[in-house]
Specification:
Length: about 400
């Protein structure tokens, strides 16, 4: 039985052309479900003159399959394959076969599995999306935003709260500053069985002087919007909006290529924020860092994230000097080569090495690890070994 499964898998991998060889080896045939899988895969991986989505026919470029054909194909793929495989196949359909219908037709977007890589492709082509499809595209992006938000929001809020609400306590009573955890734990022995509650003898209050406007942590996210940073841009945008919604910190969101766009005012809606990015173009990191410097009021309370592949097209020496001066002033500076799930990031290794030599942590980070990174950075802990975590 196991051998038959392996033969079936290899037959699906190798495609229709291998059928005769497998049949000659044994009395082998695909099941009805496997035959449907074979047809779905052949549409993008077995492109020939006679079939496949990549076939544009003799009429020339621009004529692809009809929308109903793609709709049926999407339906088959979602039914036959696991979710992880569906996203891979969808992305291959776009890159291998040029299926822009997948991006431009509202009824097709409704059938597609939300995927970060595909979303970054859509955002890169957003200026080409016809008016009739704009709302469907927003809904597709919104689904991805909601999924990521569910994954990260609670952990980010917990991390920032744990770091900002120091262990320092104040004797001045304040209902808004009560340390519930310590108050409860220190008064457990005063539990009243008759009242079925704890009757505290002493209350503990946080010292809120560190969270006044002048002493709030200022988090600046300087985000490279060059084409290679698509996935990082999506995660960065959602994380930026979560941080911006927290009153305990101030958040500044800046996007750059060779130009600079301050997107802080769009932080109320992560979808609007994402559509404010213009993926593609060159890179002038030095220019962007110079722009961000004006928002550093209290260096010791500033956390600066540079999210970039470090492919500097501007003044490289000036960029390094700015980063060195920023760190020397007391700013907590972190360079994230990528903020993405899996995969080895592409980046300028020489520039990364020079930043590391200045004592600036420089590494790729998965979104799931960012809350821990935030907490450590806000607490002033050493980040030099953080990027080496598995």
């Amino acid at each position: 039985m196991e051998i038959e499964k392996q033969i079936s898998r290899w037959r699906l991998i190798l495609g229709q052309e291998s059928q005769k060889r497998f049949s000659d080896m044994s009395d082998f045939s695909l099941t009805q479900e496997q035959d449907l899988m074979d047809q779905a895969l052949a549409s993008i991986y077995n492109r020939t003159e006679n079939g496949g989505f990549g076939n544009q026919g003799s009429a020339g470029a621009g004529r692809g399959p009809s929308n109903p054909q793609i709709s049926r194909w999407l339906g088959d793929v979602r039914t036959l394959f696991d979710k992880e495989l569906v996203t891979v196949i969808q992305n291959d359909a776009v890159t291998r076969c040029g299926l822009k219908q997948l991006l431009f037709e509202p009824e097709l977007l409704e059938n597609m599995e939300p995927d970060v890589n595909l979303a970054s492709t859509i955002l890169m082509l957003k200026d080409q999306i016809p008016k009739r499809s704009k709302e469907s595209v927003r809904e597709f992006i919104k689904k991805i935003v909601e999924e990521i938000n569910k994954l990260l929001e609670q952990d980010i809020r917990r991390a920032v709260t744990a770091a900002v609400n120091k262990k320092n306590h104040s004797p001045i009573p304040s209902a808004s500053a009560i340390d519930y955890k310590m108050t409860i734990s220190r008064n457990l022995k005063h539990y009243n069985p008759e009242l079925k509650t704890i009757v505290p003898e002493h209350f503990y209050f946080f010292d809120r002087t560190s969270t006044t406007a002048a002493n709030k942590w200022n988090i600046i996210l300087d985000i490279d919007q060059s084409g290679s940073m698509g996935e990082s841009v999506i995660y960065s945008s959602i994380i930026s909006c979560i941080l911006a919604s927290m009153a305990s910190v101030r958040t500044r969101i800046v996007a750059f290529d060779t130009n600079i766009v301050d997107l802080t005012e769009k932080s109320d809606d992560p979808v609007d924020l994402l559509f404010g990015f213009q993926l593609g173009g060159g890179t002038d990191i030095n220019k962007s860092v110079a722009y961000c410097e004006q928002f550093i009021e209290n260096p010791s309370k500033t956390l600066f994230f540079l999210i970039s592949d470090l492919e500097e097209g501007g003044n490289r020496a000036a960029f390094l000097r700015r980063m060195e001066d920023m760190k020397a002033s007391g700013v907590t500076v972190v360079s994230l080569l990528a903020l993405a799930d899996g995969g080895k990031p592409y980046y300028d290794a020489q520039m990364a090495q020079k930043l590391a030599g200045l004592g600036i942590p420089c590494f790729a980070c998965s979104p799931q690890l960012l809350p821990e990174l935030l907490e450590k950075a806000l607490k002033g802990q050493d980040l030099s070994g953080f990027g080496k975590k598995k």
